[in-house]
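Handoff note, outgoing to incoming analyst
You'll be picking up this chain. Sequence as last confirmed:
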Amino acid sequence: MNKIKIKELIIAILIPLAVGGTAGLLTRNSMEDYQKLNQPSIAPPGIVFPIVWTILFILMGIASYFVYTSSCKYRDLGLKVYAIQLVINFFFNILFFTFQLFFFSFLWTILLLFVNLVMFQLFYKCNKIAGYLLLPYLAWNSFAILLSFLVYTVN
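Most recent structure output, in case you need it:
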């Protein structure tokens, strides 16, 4: 196993945390409006979201580090897809919370899942651990599709 490059690992973790943190800051004033909406029965309490997303962003960052430090032929493509999914993820918050485009957000989460599945395949080919680290994100993304659809239907 290769020696861990601490600086690269920290940067890899900070990138998704910065994306998520920025999206959170931009949408924080919309959270009160969201809390006033009809909530589906499966909606977790609001406090769950920042906790789950922090964990998922850390796992994403670690996974990206493993791919970045690999010599896999899919490395560059995998990291490009990773960057694309971070952008898609970032804009979901704005579409859903700020603009309350619930049906469009539902479709956006399907797009995100598709891109995440491609990312998973590329990361897994480069480093199995990197792929495994993305499984909770894929599960949460799948849950987000259902939750987005249900928020749309009850509002």
